[in-house]
Write a structure and sequence with these properties.
The protein is built from nine helices and ten strands. It is of the alpha+beta class. Strands 1, 2, 3, 4, 5 and 6 form a six-stranded mixed β-sheet that branches. Strands 8-9-7-10 form a four-stranded antiparallel β-sheet, covered by helices on one side. Helix 1 runs parallel beside helix 2, helix 1 runs antiparallel to helix 3 and helix 2 runs antiparallel to helix 3.
Length: 275
């Protein structure tokens, strides 16, 4: 199963909920950057191996927990052996862990079909998991992230930059400076269509800039290019800018990588759909 990364083309935080979570309003879009989750049956239990990253292989891993939730909800299921090949940076604002969890749910469903409410399991696992569970290339996400509305963002090429630090979502939300109004979806989509500045914001960005000052340097470097829509994705620290086309994205990414060889820099296509 392919587990795609995502970016937030605007992340608005409108209130704090009674359950302790935050009310968000965001335009999420999948990328062609992805992890890979493979699964096979076993007589009982869960075994997870991880390649490409130093991640836990037990209950502290969200993909492991997703598999456990599915097997517990399916009365006739046996066990599962999972292998996770990581390409998405960890704690980077790109949704890698949530996407891995959604892929693990789908993999378990493939191995053990049954009347299991995947949407409910996804919502319990994390705010971004419901989006990754769908085949939607892009969607407006509200509530905790589980209220999804189809959005058409078209094909875009991005340059992604991560300075090599991690930001946990709990840290980013704890540093929230102020609440916002709702996401101006129509205006953002109109600007994206024209290829000019989308005018969106990320409510978590000001707090993360204080928490991880290097993110400000990333944003300044991206803004010094001719990319548009430079923004931090999700809870950060990965930031991105929108290029004119594939060639433009590759050229900018190569230039930034030469300037900052220790940073993680990639060009990636937007609006990618799982098969």
């Amino acid at each position: 199963m392919l587990a795609p990364a995502k970016v937030n083309l605007g992340l608005y935080v409108t209130a704090r909920r009674e359950d302790g979570y935050h009310q968000i309003d965001s335009l999420m879009a999948k990328l062609d950057l992805h992890d890979v989750v493979t699964a096979t049956t076993s007589p009982s239990g869960i075994r997870l191996t991880v390649e490409g990253a130093n991640l836990p292989s037990g209950p502290d891993n969200l993909a492991y927990r997703a598999a456990r939730c599915y097997l517990e909800a399916h009365s006739g299921a046996g066990g599962v052996v999972l292998h996770l090949r990581k390409k998405i940076p960890i704690a980077a604002g790109l949704g890698g862990g949530s996407s891995d969890a959604a892929a693990a749910l789908r993999a378990c469903e493939h191995l053990y079909p049954g009347a299991v409410d995947l949407a409910s399991l996804a919502a319990d696992l994390g705010s971004d998991v419901p989006f990754f569970l769908t085949n939607l290339p892009a969607a407006r996400a509200r509530g905790r992230g589980e209220v999804l509305e189809v959005a058409e963002v078209g094909s875009r090429w991005l340059v992604l930059v991560n300075p090599g630090v991690m930001v946990r979502a709990t840290e980013a939300y704890a540093g929230l400076v102020d609440f916002t109004g709702p996401l101006p979806l129509s205006a953002i989509l109109e600007h994206l269509t024209r290829g000019d500045e989308p005018g969106y914001l990320n409510a978590l960005q000001p707090g993360v800039l204080l928490l991880r000052p290097v993110v400000r340097e990333v944003i300044e470097e991206l803004r010094a290019t001719d990319l548009v829509g430079v923004l931090m994705s999700g809870s950060g620290p990965t930031c991105f800018g929108i290029a004119e086309n594939r060639r433009h994205a590759g050229e900018v990414a190569a230039t930034l990588q030469r300037r900052h060889p220790r940073w993680w820099v990639r060009s990636s296509a937007l609006a990618w759909a799982d098969e």
